[in-house]
Amino acid sequence: MKQTTMLPVLAGIISSIIVGFSYLFLKNIVSEASALSILSYRFTIAFIAMSVLVLFKVIKVDFRGKPVLPLILFSIVQPVLAFSFQTYGMKYASSSEAGIITALVPIFVMFFAAMFLKESTTTLQKFSILLSVSGVAYITIMKGIDGEANVIGIVLIVLSVISMAVYTVLARKFSKQFSPLELTYAMMGSGMIMFSVMLFISPEKADFSVLTNVNFVTSILYLGILSSVVTSFLSNYMVTRMKASQSVVFMNLSTIVSILAGAFILHEAVYMYHLIGTVMIILGVVGTNLKSVSFPKRMAGTTVNE
């Protein structure tokens, strides 16, 4: 790979590591607060953190003279729709079903990117994406399908996957009008407003007592700042520097990180199928990004080298 390719690749790897560890932090607090409360706290902290950085001019965002409608559409798709469908889908679908279906995101992205962005992929890249997806599915299946299939849950998880794929394509499309930071800031603001409103009108009421729990606060800070702000920025940055189908395949690396984190931190068992699936995922990610991908210095004339 050329040097121009390394920054987005590094962004993808770092993002995958953060997301992989986020499962540990989420696991720590799911019994202490409702899913909607966690989402509300998570994005409120994320938006406040970014706002402080904007206020002190550590980061710069400027929405003046830019189209608002695309930004609203973008920030509704992700995180609002994607997280909502995923959260409520998990109430009905098993974790195994959710894991297998979510692994299909790169395939949906490849399809949507070809349709709406006219991005092409080589035979090697198509095969590599399928290999990576198969690696995640293989690990999930070998762990065992838990519970009976539920149509409502499966439909909601599929809608979540479609939302994630649409987000990736929209981020690529809107990168000519908005910077990665501006896209991220809009996402955090949208998440804070929508999830807080949903929490307010739902039977689930916010439990402020959890804010005195050090374990909860530590976990929500990780989820809000690192797993929301940082990963969203890295994802938005990455998708402006490489094809949508190439950038999204990095999300499957988080499966490997979660396995390693579970093994070394929670002392969970690692089996041969974990290793086989890991090799499949890594080979898939490498194969998808073998060709150098770079943008010209001026973002206005965004093109991707074949």
> How many individual β-strands?
0
Helical fraction: over 70%
Bulk shape = globular
Please give the radius of gyration in angstroms: 19 Å
Contiguous helical run count = 12
Describe, in short, the structure shown:
This protein has 306 residues and is an all-alpha fold.
Task: Report what the structure shows.
- Belongs to the EamA transporter family.
- Keywords: Cell membrane, Membrane, Transmembrane, Transmembrane helix.
- One of its GO terms (cellular component) is plasma membrane.
- By secondary structure, the chain is an all-alpha fold.
- The protein has one domain.
- The chain has helices at 3-29, 35-55, 68-92, 95-102, 105-117, 123-143, 151-174, 180-201, 214-241, 244-248, 253-264, 272-288.
- Helix 7 (151-174) packs across helix 9 (214-241).
